[in-house]
Amino acid sequence: MVIFSLASFSKDKSLTLFYGIGLGIFAAVLLGYFVFKLSNRINIRLFFIATTLILVIVSSEVLKDLVEEILKEGLKTQNDVIPTALSFGYILIFLVLMIRSNIISKQKTE
After folding, report:
1. Integer Cα distance of 65 and 70 in angstroms
2. CA gap 105, 107 in Å, rounded
3. pTM of the prediction?
4. CB-based burial, 12-50: b 16+ in 10 Å, e otherwise
5. pLDDT per residue rounded down to tens, the chain (110 residues)
6. How large is the angle between the packed helices 81-109 and 44-69, nearest 10 degrees?
């Protein structure tokens, strides 16, 4: 990531990109420090559920953008309904699978 960012910086020569790289690295180090220091007080199951949900939401937006580009470039059509429906469907399927796995794990523990 850092190598890619530095390659972009050498091409662009923009200070805002440099500040963004530095701020991102600083934020990652700071977050890592706080997670390490507070790890004994954090409910680890809740932490992983929250980070998983964030990753699913981000990946659904990437999927939506991918489908929009395929429709625009490949099929030469403009359609906003299909990518949005796929994005919502992706999140919904994930949530259903997550709830189902929680129910199954609770049944096994009882």
Report:
1. 9
2. 5
3. 0.55
4. eeeeeeeeebeeeeeeeeeeeeeeeeeeeeeeeeeeeee
5. 556 666 665 666 667 777 877 888 899 999 889 888 887 787 878 888 888 888 888 888 888 888 888 888 877 777 777 778 888 888 888 888 888 887 777 777 76
6. 160
